[in-house]
UniProtKB/TrEMBL annotation:
Source species: Dongia mobilis
Domain AFP-like: 292-350
Database matches in InterPro entries: AFP_Neu5c_C_sf (IPR036732), Aldolase_TIM (IPR013785), PseI-like (IPR051690), PseI/NeuA/B-like_N (IPR013132), Pseudaminic_synth_PseI (IPR020030), SAF (IPR013974), SAF_AFP_Neu5Ac (IPR006190), SAF_PseI/NeuA/NeuB (IPR057736)
Stored Pfam families: NeuB, SAF
PANTHER family: N-ACETYLNEURAMINATE SYNTHASE (PTHR42966), PSEUDAMINIC ACID SYNTHASE (PTHR42966:SF2)
GO process terms (BP): carbohydrate biosynthetic process
MF (Gene Ontology): N-acylneuraminate-9-phosphate synthase activity
Record's protein name: N-acetylneuraminate synthase
Matches recorded under SMART domains: SAF (SM00858)
């Protein structure tokens, strides 16, 4: 389970980070804007654009009670129904977005929030599915998605380890063979101090799967750090401009920022390399400049070598500095000029 393929792209630690641009509600009610966001994501270098597939009445109910209002955070006081009605993407937009994705060469898939959304996405040929953090405890939904046989990505925000284990077991039992778990903190935005990125390698070890990061921090530093810890996937909310507003705009990246993040996580991935000791190709020119033993004062044949005659200096053409104690006290076999690299032929046999 250390490798997953989505729309022909192989994802795993031995491959460059798979970058998902999350459209979420940043369409702001415009299909053309959603398409422009997809084009911008492709131009910035993203591998995929992820949608969210729900309607207000499939994710909650129209109710004014206190249970149905957001308490605290970015959306404090909002009615759930109103929030989701504003954020939801019309279902008839999915087909043109999937078609545009095929034209552009960027994968398009979605987070379904109920069975009807899965059915709709199956008709469109979705190459993968994402289970959102707050749906990780919806075992029937996970099982329904798993039965499609498509790769699954599951975010772990706000979940206990036991809940994650239950979700993973349900997905695998129902037929999921390609699974990615994303470390996620469902704070909007997330303080970097709550990212707890050391969880990433632990998730990989616990569940024997590809792991990544669904990130809600501001900026791009956290995804770079996550890549160094083994994250094979980075998901970030994405918009054309935060100034345009919208439910998710405040913690979304703009096109230039997404491009910079992709470049940075790729550099971080390149820098991981492999376990390696010894000089690299770029060190070929510097290795000869290491220290070695040189004659620093003229020596006559038959003269005894003293500390004033030989020192460890740069460059590295002579004997290694560790041989200095063996050289001191030797008898010169011939005249030795200042600036000569020391070798064993310079000395008379003991």
């Amino acid at each position: 389970m250390q490798q997953v393929t989505i729309a022909g792209r192989t994802i795993g630690r031995d491959h460059r980070p798979y970058v998902i641009a999350e459209l979420s509600a940043n369409h702001n009610g415009s299909l053309e804007r959603a398409m422009d966001i997809m084009r911008a994501a492709k131009k910035a270098g993203a591998d995929a654009l992820k949608l969210q597939s729900y309607r207000a009445d499939t994710i909650t109910i129209d109710h004014d009670g206190p249970d149905f209002r957001v308490k605290g955070g970015l959306w404090d006081g909002a009615r759930l129904y109103d929030l989701y009605e504003q954020a939801a993407m019309p279902w008839d937009w999915h087909q043109p977005l999937f078609e545009l994705g095929r034209e552009l060469g960027i994968a398009v898939f979605s987070s379904p929030f109920d069975h009807t959304a899965v059915d709709m996405l199956e008709q469109l040929g979705a190459p993968a599915y994402k289970i959102a953090s707050l749906e990780l405890i919806d075992i029937p939904l996970i099982e329904y998605v798993a039965r499609t046989g498509k790769p699954m990505i599951m975010s772990t925000g706000a979940s206990e380890l036991g809940e994650i284990a239950e979700a993973v077991a349900a997905a695998r039992k129902a037929g999921c063979r390609e699974l990615i778990l994303l470390k996620c903190t469902s704070g909007y935005p997330t303080p970097p101090t709550e990212s707890n990125l050391r969880t990433i390698p632990h998730l990989a070890e616990m569940f024997d799967c590809v792991v990544g990061l669904s990130d809600h921090t501001m900026g791009t530093a956290v995804p770079v750090a996550a890549t160094a810890l083994g994250s094979a996937v980075v998901e970030k909310h994405f918009t054309l401009a935060r100034a345009d507003g919208g439910v998710d705009s405040a913690f979304s990246l703009e096109p230039a920022e997404l491009g910079q993040m992709i470049e940075a996580v790729n550099v971080a991935w390149d820098a991981l390399g492999a376990v390696h000791y010894g000089p690299t190709a770029s060190e070929a020119g510097i290795r000869p400049l290491r220290r070695s033993l040189y004659v620093v004062k003229d020596v006559k044949a038959g003269e005894k070598i003293g500390p004033e005659h030989v020192r460890s200096i740069r460059p590295g053409k002579g004997l290694a500095p560790k041989h200095l104690p063996e050289v001191i006290g030797r008898i010169a076999a011939r005249d030795l000029a200042r600036g000569t690299a020391v070798d064993w032929t310079m000395f008379a046999a003991n």
